[in-house]
Amino acid sequence: MTEAASIRRLTYSDLPSVISIERRSFPTPWSLAMFVLELSKPSGICLAASDGDELLGYLVCSRYDQVRHLMNVAVAPEHRRSGIARRLIGKLVEEGGGKLPFTLEVRVSNHPAIRMYERLGFRSAGVRPRYYQDNGEDALIMWLD
User: Fold this and answer.
1) Which of 105, 131, 132, 137 is catalytic?
2) How is 43-62 classified by DSSP, letter by letter?
3) Cα(98)–Cα(68) distance, integer angstroms
4) Which of 41, 59, 60, 110 could bridge 72 with an S-S bond, Cβ 3.0-4.6 Å?
5) What does the radius of gyration of the chain's CA atoms come to, in whole angstroms?
6) 105 has catalytic annotation
7) pTM for this one?
8) How far, in Å, CA of 49 to CA of 74, rounded?
9) Residue 132 is a catalytic residue
């Protein structure tokens, strides 16, 4: 599946599929309005992985002054562990042009995601206590320079 997937810009027409993946991926999913807001920011980078008409995954990255913040990355449950998130983040770093560092937060319990980010060069830089509102879980802060 990974080889057939193409990486492209996320579009408004992708949002119904994005919402479906989002709701199956997170205990507190983003709203449609949140995705619309991020897609409307010209400085952001929003990417999609698709195979034909099927959306497999997506990411949303915002630019803040001197940093790019990876806000959201998700892959449809049936397509996880096939390299899609890795390819999306690789394309993000390529499009970011190496001029600004990247940061993200990830649940401290999400060991598969943490290992993937580490393999991609992200490094731990501390913890945000009780960051996640659904259960008060801490977030690991990671950076890629």
Assistant:
1) 105
2) T-EEEEEEETTEEEEEEEEE
3) 10
4) 60
5) 14
6) yes
7) 0.92
8) 10
9) no
